[in-house]
Amino acid sequence: MQIITTKKELMATVLACKNASKTIGLVPTMGALHEGHASLVRRAVNENNVCFVSVFVNPTQFNNKEDLAKYPRNIRRDAELLSSIGADFVFAPTPEEMYSAEEMNSTFSFDFNGLDQVMEGKMRPGHFNGVVQVVSRLFYLVKPDKAYFGEKDFQQLAIIHYMVERSELAGTFGHLQIVDCPIVREPSGLALSSRNERLSEEEKHTALAISKTLFDSLQWAKEPGATVAQVQQRVIDTINATPFPTPHNHCTPNPQDNNNDCTLNPQDNNKDCTPNPQNNNNDGTPNPQNNNNDGNKRALEVEYYEIVDRKTLLPTDTFTNAIGCVTVYCGPVRLIDNIQYN
Predict the structure, then answer these.
(1) Can you name the CATH fold of 194-340?
(2) Could you tell me which of 57, 75, 40 has the C-alpha nearest to residue 147?
(3) Which of 25, 124, 187, 216 shows the smallest number of beta carbons within 10 Å?
(4) Is 56 in contact with 134 (CB distance < 8 Å)?
(5) Catalytic center residues
(6) Which pLDDT does position 281 carry in this prediction?
(7) Averaged pLDDT score across all residues of the chain
(8) Global confidence as pTM
């Protein structure tokens, strides 16, 4: 496997592949790779003659500089993983190599046809401008036949489809196929994410309520008379009501009792596993991201949950062709997930 750090070398390598009539698969990533990324790379390797993977933390899609600074980076570990699963080339540029100073300090212009005005776009203004900027740049440089994206970032995926459909009219990227790849989850159900590295073990346990609630909502949607608005609010209320972990709901066995199934110990005074309202944060410090209306901190705080049409991303009153997209704060870490209703 070869690691490429400059656009000039990348374009020369791509040209050699094209001249040899090799098909190219591209997997754009921001590094901190996990099994979800690996599943995309394996598919790209299997479906193309050569596989390129970009590892680039794109600064233009972050509207929070602290979030950018904290984003996990480990190119050595990423390269080892990619080599072990058959990637041929890794493109790992610096921001200065990828963009000019002017590009770094201006907002990339693109007509999203409203796709950027809802959910993530509403909460993170300018985010998708940066996404389209970097993805279009990668498509131009690598000229892939197929590009692979995970469905966990569903709004991003819808916007990339729209960008490619518009670009096909102008012939910008040739006959590029965008390949949608299913969400990969831990055995517990938690959606794999690079941000999971920032979660403590207790926070990971707490975050399981996100996927559990989404899967439960599939049944809620089938209940007689269930409406989209009712299910949407039920998901929000259920996640927000997630209790803080205690020794007895954290699946850490107590050597003094024989209750190995993680159910409550009848000798424990905290029978309902609810947090102490006097100290909702394990370290006693307040988290400004997770406060309910009365000032008490929540274990999980829903930023939004919206059930929308899968194509237009607009609110819908039917579960047909609908997807539910959620963003939740677990402590300071922002997690996303989604569920398709049919």
Answers:
(1) Pantoate--beta-alanine Ligase; Chain: A,domain 2 (3.30.1300)
(2) 40
(3) 187
(4) yes
(5) 37
(6) 39
(7) 86
(8) 0.82
Whether 290 contacts 311, CB under 8 Å: no
The Cα-based distances of 203 to 99, 207, 334 in angstroms read: 36, 6, 12
Instruction: State residue 43 phi and psi, 5-degree precision.
Output: -65, -40
**Cα–Cα distance between 286 and 331 in angstroms, integer?**
10
What's the full length of the chain, in residues?
A: 342
Strands 50-55 and 89-91: parallel
Say yes or no to pLDDT of 272 above 50: no
Distance between CA atoms of 221 and 198, rounded to whole angstroms? 33
Domain boundaries, the chain: 2-181, 194-340
pLDDT digits (tens, 9 = 90+) for 130-165: 999 999 999 999 999 999 999 999 999 999 999 998
Q: Comparing 2-181 with 194-340, is the CATH topology the same? A: no
The beta-carbon contacts of 199-207 under 8 Å, at least 24 apart in sequence, are 199/330, 199/331, 199/333, 200/331, 202/245, 202/250, 202/282, 203/330, 203/331, 203/333, 205/245, 205/250, 205/251, 206/242, 206/244, 206/245, 206/299, 206/300, 206/330, 207/300, 207/328, 207/330, 207/335
- Asked if residue 287 has pLDDT above 80, the reply is no
User: Cβ distance 153 to 334 under 8 Å?
Assistant: no
The per-residue pLDDT for range 239-264, each reduced to its tens digit, is 999 999 875 444 444 444 444 444 43
- pLDDT of residue 269 exceeding 50, the answer is no
- Which of 3.40.30.10, 3.40.50.620, 3.40.190.10, 3.30.1380.20 is the CATH number of 2-181? 3.40.50.620
Encoded tokens for 28: 């754009």
Lowest mean pLDDT among 29-43, 62-76, 105-119, 165-179: 165-179
For residue 183, pLDDT over 60 is answered with yes
Q: Are 220 and 63 in contact (CB under 8 A)?
A: no
